[in-house]
Amino acid sequence: MKRPVSCFAVGAALMVAATSAMAVACTPAHKFSTVSPGSLTVATSTLPPFDSLDVSGNFSGIEADLIRYIAARECLRVQPAMVDPTGQTQYVMAGRADLGAFGWYRSEARSTVLNLSAPLLVERLAIYSKDGSDSIESLKGRRVGTVQGYLWVPDLRAVLGDSVKLYPTPVALAQDLAAGRIDAAIDSYTKGAYAQTHSNGYPNLKIKPAKPDNRVRASVSPAQTAFLMPKSNDALAKAIDEDIAEARASGEFSRILKHYGVESSSADAGAPRFVK
Questions:
Q1: Would you say the pTM of this structure is higher than 0.70?
Q2: Within this chain, do residues 117 and 237 fall inside the same structural domain, yes or no?
Q3: I need a surface site. Which of 53, 129, 158, 189 has the fewest CB within 10 A?
């Protein structure tokens, strides 16, 4: 007597067959080696809206979603690894990851030891205020705050003088702005736009990219972000750049930005350059 075959067994067999067929059918857009065959290993940490990796391994953010798009084109699995930002450069240089993702700026110093991808976004200087100020000139005579060490600090102080107060962290800056101890804050547009649309951050404030002002270089030529890649793998670098270009051309990159509340104009990075 023949034993009946369960629906579960048939379904499982079909799933295995379908998965195998998909694996065979997937043709990568490019040929290059990776740290772990079949995977795209990504050294990352949490910096919303660029990247976020929780204890369960859930990887999300603008760069994370773009990496998934790239991995799908290349028939690879995304393997994120939580790496402290201070160690990411060495981690990638040592060949332990294919990509470093943390909203990294394209800098000349990094380019000497790593391959940098094509520009992803521009980190625009933005003005956070109640009245929607959008120019450096409009801040004259007002109490303004920003974070120490930011690219635009020297230029801002040259234009606005002692009215610019420096804070040790973005959190301290936001707290004083909310309490009314300063009239406006200058921080990155990307972070603020994401916070407003995803976590009700910066309530009752308007966040506006600053109009270009030749006195403040960062408002005219903002820093570009990029993925970090090993110097030893030029084939990987070429493939990543071409996949980024395809994400732009197909509209996928714009869709990703919209999901995180960021204007698509942030992806108008222009020709590759190094931060000054």
A1: yes
A2: yes
A3: 158
Pairwise CA distance, residues 126 & 263, whole Å: 13
In b/e form, how buried is each residue of 200-235, taking b as 16+ CB within 10 angstroms? ebbeebbbbbbeebeebbbbeebbbbbbbbbeebee
Strand partners, 266: none
For 208, the domain range is 125-220
User: Is 168 within 8 Å of 137 (Cβ atoms)?
Assistant: no
Q: What is the DSSP string of 30-47?
A: S----SSTTEEEEEE--B
The helix (H) or strand (E) run that includes residue 224 is strand 223-230
Please tell me what DSSP assigns to residue 70. H
Q: How far, CA to CA in Å, does 141 sit from each of 126, 144, 160, 183, 208?
A: 18, 9, 8, 10, 19
Reference 182, options 146, 150, 135; nearest CA is: 146
Can you tell me the distance from the alpha carbon of 83 to that of 93, in angstroms, rounded to the nearest whole number? 13
Tell whether 189 and 249 lie within a shared domain. Answer: no
**Looking at this protein, which amino acid is placed at residue 208?**
K
* Cα 99 from Cα 116, distance rounded (Å): 10
Assigned token pair, 194: 């994401």
Place of tokens 């030029």: 234
Phi-psi region of 18 (alpha: psi -120 to 50; beta: other; left: phi over 0): alpha
Q: What are phi and psi of 228, to 5 degrees?
A: -95, 140
Q: Which residue in the block uniquely carries the two structure tokens 């750049």?
A: 241
For residue 260, being part of any structural domain is answered with yes
